[in-house]
UniProtKB/TrEMBL annotation:
CDD domains: NAT_SF. It comes from Microlunatus elymi. This is GNAT family N-acetyltransferase. The keyword Thylakoid does not apply. InterPro entries: Acyl_CoA_acyltransferase, GNAT_dom, YpeA/RimI_acetyltransf. Residues 18-160 form the N-acetyltransferase domain.
Amino acid sequence: MTDLSEASWPMAQPRSDNSVRAATVADLAALLELERAGFPVLEQWSEQSWRSELTEPALQVLIIGTDPLLGAIALRIAGDDVELDRIVVHPRARRSGIARTLINNALDGHRAAEKMILEVWTGNAAAIALYRSFGFTELINRRDYYGPGRDAVIMSLPIQDHRRVQDHRAGEVRA
């Protein structure tokens, strides 16, 4: 008998054909599938939330992978800032560089912005460590933001700092 449980799926790995691209409404079903795989039911965004992310002019969704999607990042342009509203990586693709690739693409695509801002549950140590590795710093805590006992931390990264690090790394590669 073939085991079709999620635990039997092979680990998804980023491949050279998994480039980052802007999502469209045609990707909505795949985004909803990724959302269901990536978050518990009570934390999932609705179809309408994702549809808004795909259709409103100040919002942008970047995706990576095809059949299935491996990851997505939702961004909001707010004046001179870019807000990271959502990032989701398929559970089988976590710790493979998908989130890092999406964040780098988002930062590179918004070089004219002053800073990127995000909020994250304080209990999500892996996400906080990832954001800190980019240079994000904690601004404030929001008590019970995600419900009783589930605080959020607001983090920020001046995009100029990201550019400086990227330029430095590019110089190391050329040297």
